[in-house]
Design goal:
Elements lengths: L3 E6 L1 H5 L3 H10 L3 E8 L3 H7 L9 H8 L4 E7 L3 H9 L12 H5 L8 E3 L3 H11 L7
Bound molecules: 2'-deoxyadenosine-5'-diphosphate and magnesium ion (MG).
Length: 138
């Protein structure tokens, strides 16, 4: 078990003005911020980040959406970070997400679902390194 996970506050939630509220939920959840920045994915970045989904029917709209505007990228630290963060964000589809979860509170739809959370310790490290250099992670 590793202690870090990677998250993005997605373009929908940034555009809807939810950066502060989502960072508040992350802090309340006991996560420590190890890296943080406002940035924007190019189409090529989004294709690469989500390449495991390349064969899925929603890949094109996912890439278009994720590169459509600024995001907040962050590396978070907590014991059992990957699993606990996925609990905090809720189900992929906000209609199925538990009350009080970030996606239930802030997502627009299954495609525009407010936040990303890594799905494994291995991917957390890969995703953190995709977005941040060593000197940006504290
Ligand atoms: P998660 O983000 O919960 O790990 P995922 O890895 O299965 O979900 O999919 C990555 C993203 O792709 C997801 O956050 C939103 C989008 N997506 C997933 N399923 C979708 C669907 N059925 N229609 C549209 N977008 C979808
Ligand atoms: Mg996923």
């Amino acid at each position: 078990m590793s202690n870090i996970t990677f998250t993005m506050i997605k373009p929908d939630a940034v555009a809807d003005g939810h950066i502060g509220a989502i960072l508040g939920k992350i802090a309340e959840g006991g996560f420590k911020i190890k890296a943080l920045k406002l940035t924007q994915l190019t189409v090529a970045d989004a294709k690469k980040f989500y390449e495991v989904h390349a064969e899925r029917p929603f890949y094109g709209e996912l890439v278009e959406f994720m590169s459509s505007g600024p995001i907040v990228a962050a590396v978070l630290e907590k014991a059992n970070a990957v699993e606990d963060f996925r609990t905090l964000i809720g189900a992929t589809n906000p209609a199925e997400a538990a009350e009080g979860t970030i996606r239930k509170m802030f997502a627009r739809s299954i495609g525009e679902n407010a936040v990303h959370g890594s799905d494994s310790d291995e991917n957390a490290l890969i995703e953190a390194q995709f977005h941040f250099s060593g000197r940006e992670i504290f």
